[in-house]
Amino acid sequence: MKAENRNAQKRRWGDRRDGRLVKAPGLQTVMAYLMPKRTDCEVYLHDTLDATELVRYLEEKNAQHPDYKTTVFHCAIAGLARMVMERPLMNRFIQGYRMYERNEISLSFVVKRRFADRAEESLMVLVPKGEDNLDSISRKIVGDVKEIRKSEHSTGGIDALLDGFAKIPRPILAVVIRLIRILDFWGINPKVLTDGDPNYTTILASNLGSIQCPSVYHHLNNYGTNSIMITIGTLHKEEMLMPDGTKEIRTVIDIGATLDERIADGFYFARSLKLIKHIFAHPELLDRPLQENSGFSYQ
């Protein structure tokens, strides 16, 4: 069932505002008690994706629309959204010893206001819908980033809230944060604390390629519900072994992922990665609405 359809369902006993309670298998249920902290259950993944076809696709696309540039990062965000749409277990989280499936798909990342050491950062959250495709997602990202970069300082939302917390005296702030963590455990944090917070999104992504940095492993947080952290490195050339046994210089990109192993098993994670690779190899899929199945065979 699609995430946006679940969002319209009647809330049941045990559900959270941001997710529906699901019955977890015995192993995952016990793991939630044995390893209640998300940072206790991190698994790391690093892989190199062949982006040759994706780069060709973007060159053609951007040549047709020279006034508007679609980037590799836009494609990565759209591809990740499509993957989660087709692989719903990737949209789950564990909090308060229970497993939930989110009502919607959400992706977040940090926006640097200026490429300077002391420039402030702002948090951005994207909630794609089933009818979205690469074009609409790209324009949402570009539009929101432009709005953020209009100001050198916080433009409101979660950024303004964090700025307010930073002004509270240390002893009082320690008590406030402890209370927030208790509310977080029970899933009753007010929306003002969760809306726009990347710790409450499906995937927290970091575009390290934009600052010419390779992909890294980034920890998860025990606060919030985020179960997947992905970093995207720089495009570069690398010799790859092709399916016919020959070697070829290809354009590749490295990704690093940190996942909460309690939301699914390794087999499910591996198949989800295969889908991402398939999307990069067939970027025309990004032109389709997210709700349309990619038709990828997992054999």
Quick rundown:
With 299 residues, the chain is of the alpha+beta class.
User: At CATH's second level, what is the architecture?
Assistant: 2-Layer Sandwich
Distance between the termini: 23 Å
The residue-averaged pLDDT reads: 88
How many structural units, i.e. domains? 1
Sheet/helix structural class: alpha+beta
Largest sheet: 6 strands, mixed
| Spatial order of strands in the largest sheet | 2-9-8-7-5-6
Poorly predicted regions: none
**CATH H-level homologous superfamily name:** Chloramphenicol acetyltransferase-like domain
Strand content: 15-25%
Backbone shape:
globular
SS field, number of helical segments: 9
Number of strands: 9
* H-E order: HEHEHHEEEEHHHHEEEH
Task: Give me the Rg, rounded.
Answer: 20 Å
Helix content: 25-40%
**Within the CATH hierarchy, at the fold level, what is the topology?**
Chloramphenicol Acetyltransferase
The first-level CATH class is given as Alpha Beta
